[in-house]
């Protein structure tokens, strides 16, 4: 590997990977390719903006001409694809963008990569493709059972990756990450959303009873897992990157309120979202066998995350305006109103 295209590299996990790779592997050139949708943010890349081996290109992975131009200009030999629409709530409101990026975009990236003779294509996916796991832990050979438009679009992208490996012999690797959190995460996901809302003493809309179970993975651990899969993963294989630290959403909410010194009276139990999976859980033994280890407990990661958002209000306050507020109204206004009416 010499020239690595990190598609979706201005987003949360993609930018963490780009920052990590620039620091860890000075012999690689990292080209971040990102459409800069609402969740893409060049501020996420400020720590590496002056580094010689980093370049940024604005582009859409579903734009064949833009992808081809980037491959040719930078002589790309490796792709690590993070580009995705990734918020379940938004996929329920409208799935168009999810199909465009998560499925069609992956196909175009693969097809141009095959024509360009890529050495490796690593595709970053999600535990949500396995669907609701009532008990036990998902392993890589389990079937897909996606229950949201987002999860279905990610499953579609994964199947296209598999097809290009089987049909065309491409060297492809897939990683499936569990519920990732940490600095620079767009504040629509649970932790940054609730942390920033609580800092402003605003109500926290907890879906249903809050007993949904998620497997929490600190972003730096997710990134090192991708690094291991990229360098040591077997062609055609998938690897779970799991925090293996299962928590109820309501317990996580209590924990972050405690760390912020905010009252639990901020919690509002609101009507649940449609098709809400109850539990995700994965087994990461296959990746650990390649040498990966998790470096953060949830307690450590949550402490670091809360501190980062408290110390970096400049980053998130300018995000929570305009389009963000419009989305907030669509998603939560009626739910919060219903919760207020039902309070004693």
List keywords for this structure.
alpha/beta; seven-stranded parallel β-sheet
3D structure, described in words:
With 344 residues, the chain is α/β, with parallel strands linked by helices. It has 12 helices and 12 strands. The protein has a 7-stranded parallel sheet with strand order 3-2-1-4-5-6-10, sandwiched between helices. The chain has a 3-stranded mixed sheet with strand order 7-9-11. Helix 6 runs parallel beside helix 8. The termini are far apart. The model has no long low-confidence stretch (mean pLDDT 96).
List the helices and strands and how they pair.
Layout: E1 3-7, H1 12-24, E2 29-34, E3 54-58, H2 64-74, E4 78-81, H3 88-93, H4 96-116, E5 120-126, H5 149-168, E6 172-177, E7 179-181, H6 190-199, E8 204-207, E9 213-218, H7 219-232, E10 238-241, E11 246-248, H8 249-260, E12 267-270, H9 285-288, H10 298-311, H11 313-317, H12 323-342
Parallel strand pairs: 1-2, 1-4, 2-3, 4-5, 5-6, 6-10, 7-9, 8-12
Antiparallel strand pairs: 9-11
